[in-house]
Specification:
about 110 residues, mainly beta, single chain
Length: about 110
């Protein structure tokens, strides 16, 4: 897994490292030690899937306050999504800043 820092403190773009052969490829999408090395709690609290009937569907914004906050990793396995994150932590140097990243089945990125 390759981690690229974003302009938002504590947010990462994660690209998988594919091992390819004639059958296709294999790649890790979860590595607790690599998440922890970047200050992310690797405890898996949930694993969810969402599917939309229509293109252009907007899902909700998710916000959690301590001590209920969780590390979230978003990935698109079919089609494409634009994932937007906003830093709402008042103590953060990137407070009120935001980024949007396109996640697709082709780029296999995670945010």
């Amino acid at each position: 897994m390759t981690f690229t820092e974003t302009p938002l403190q504590g947010a990462w773009i994660i690209d998988i490292a594919r091992i390819e052969d004639e059958r296709g490829f294999f790649a890790r999408t979860w590595a607790p030690e690599e998440l922890a090395a970047r200050g992310l709690d690797p405890t898996l609290a949930q694993c969810n899937v969402a599917w939309n009937h229509r293109r252009g569907t907007i899902r909700g914004m998710h916000f959690q306050r301590a001590p209920m906050q969780e590390v979230k990793i978003v990935r698109c396995t079919r089609g494409a999504i634009v994932d937007t994150i906003i830093d709402l932590r008042p103590e953060s140097p990137t407070y009120c800043q935001w980024i949007s990243i396109e996640l697709t089945e082709e780029n296999r990125r995670m945010l």
